[in-house]
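Work Package 3 (structural annotation) set out to generate three-dimensional models for the target panel prioritized at the project kickoff. During this period the team completed the workflow that converts sequence records into discrete structure tokens, so that structures can be stored uniformly alongside our sequence database. As a representative example, we reproduce one entry of 291 residues exactly as it appears in the project archive.
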Amino acid sequence: AGSQGAASGATPNPSAKGDPGARVSHNGQNLLISMDEVAKESVIRVGKEVLDSMINRAIIQLACRERGVEVAKSEVDQEIVRIAAEFKIPVEQYLQMLQAERNISPEQYRRDVIWPMLALKKLAGAEVKVTDEEIQKAFEREYGPRVKCRMILCDNLRRAQAAWAKVKENPDDFEKYVQEYSIDPASKSLDGSVPPIPRHSGSENVEKVAFKLKPGEISAVTQIDSTLNQYVILKCEGRTDPVVKGLDDQVRAELADLLKKQKTQEQVAKVFESIKKETRVDNYYTNTSTG
């Protein structure tokens, strides 16, 4: 046994601290593992993670207390029922799945996941709203045509310009220059092939360039973002054919629900960061102070 238990007889060692956790016996020899030892080992292994979770919950509790916000047990239960319904499985099966896949008990889930989320939603205040413009952009992003292309990604302008000069001379050798110049290992292993590019999904610069290209055309050197020293060269291979052609009521409702969830998550994150900054935390485990 790796634990430093104390040798004992038929009864637990009276010198052991705290309650006994286990006794290991072999050929008349015994080692007692106390619960104090279990607790110390647990703190060493997962103490910081557990303490961080407790601190975050305490921060939210203090904010709720100050602002008169309460989350009833019935609200927590209703939220779990709602989430399980989204997965189209019974509540008990959903909780069992969490236990098996994430090693989180139903009580931990209620206390450490659902309660903080509901509390932060209440602290955030007004319910989020979704505009027609946002729904239209989401429709174009999720269901609109996408540009199929290959990409060369470079981490400086000089390298990108060198690659572009070679590609313009020999466009049929694009895949060859991917291997020579691209720094992206994922697309490089696929000769530059990347997932089809939708609208409103990330880099506005790249999207504008991609959607102007015709099959076989090669883009100019394009900076991904003004804050990033990364540049791409795209070779267009056509466009995908949209599966959903129109924005009907059902699609609109699904997109509105998706956008509300996304905006709520963003709002909750902002609220939590705000109350963290307003709250002083002296963490004696890590010898740090914040807030």
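The beta strands are 6-7, 20-26, 29-34, 147-154, 193-197, 222-223, 231-239, 281-283, 288-290.
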